[in-house]
Automatic annotation (TrEMBL):
Protein name (Swiss-Prot/TrEMBL): DUF3820 family protein
Taxonomic lineage: Bacteria, Pseudomonadati, Verrucomicrobiota, Verrucomicrobiia, Verrucomicrobiales
InterPro entries found in the cross-reference section: QSregVF_b
Top-level taxon of origin: Bacteria
Length: 102
């Protein structure tokens, strides 16, 4: 792959966000998680069961391959340009129910 082609590919990856599922807009508001920050376990799940059709699936397969060989730092300039790594943490309930004292 030519250097300019790889640069264009990274630019395309940097603009894409996960449009559905756990890491989509419903789980990571307002637009979903950037696809380069998806956890390797999630990408491996797609790898086992099949990536989505179309360009999104192609990009997820490329990201999975890059992360599998340990080159995740390739995405660091994208993270810096977009304000850092996006993390996903399920919200914990803030209301705690304690048993009444007798």
């Amino acid at each position: 792959m030519e250097r300019e082609d790889f640069r264009n590919l990274l630019g395309e990856i940097g603009k894409m966000r996960m449009p559905f599922g756990k890491y989509g807009p419903a789980g990571v508001p307002p637009r979903g998680m950037p696809i380069y920050d998806l956890p390797p376990e999630y990408l491996s799940w797609f790898k086992e069961r099949g990536f989505p059709k179309g360009r999104l699936g192609e990009l997820l397969a490329i990201i999975c391959e890059i992360k599998d060989v340990g080159m995740d730092q390739v995405f660091d300039p994208l993270r810096e340009a977009n304000g850092g790594r996006v993390t996903f943490r399920a919200k914990r309930p803030r209301d705690r129910q304690f048993p009444a004292e007798e």
